[in-house]
Write a structure and sequence with these properties.
Elements: E1 4-5, E2 15-18, H1 27-34, E3 41-44, E4 52-54, E5 59-61, H2 62-65, E6 72-77, E7 84-91, H3 97-102
Length: about 110
């Protein structure tokens, strides 16, 4: 059994770290948000974009996973890959095939 969780802001109660997603975003925008082209944001904690799964070593975005992207919560790095930036991203370029093969799970609606 697995469980997802949310990372709530201390400064802004009710807002959680989330993939930068708005209801109705097109497939291109979702791909960009899940493959480290957009910053993470603070969103309503009830949003599916704010759900994360901990696999024992990484935080995986359940929002991105359900849309076909293996994206982990990451600190952004500069273009040379040598220094950390001051913001977080959903990093889809970092995820490897090993992650996909070893972290297979099913999201099922028990009421469906």
């Amino acid at each position: 059994e697995f469980s997802t969780f949310k990372i709530e802001s201390y400064e802004y109660p009710g807002l959680c770290i989330a993939v930068n997603y708005l209801e109705g975003d097109d497939a291109n925008t979702i791909a960009r948000a899940c493959q480290n082209e957009l910053f993470l944001s603070l969103d309503n904690c009830n949003s599916t974009a704010a759900e994360w799964y901990f696999n024992g070593g990484q935080l995986i975005s359940t929002h991105c996973w359900m849309r076909g992207y293996s994206s982990t919560l990451s600190v952004a790095v500069d273009s040379l890959g040598t220094q950390c930036e001051s913001y977080l991203i959903a990093n889809g370029q970092f995820a490897t095939s090993a992650l996909v093969k070893e972290e297979i799970f099913v999201f099922a609606d028990p009421y469906a």
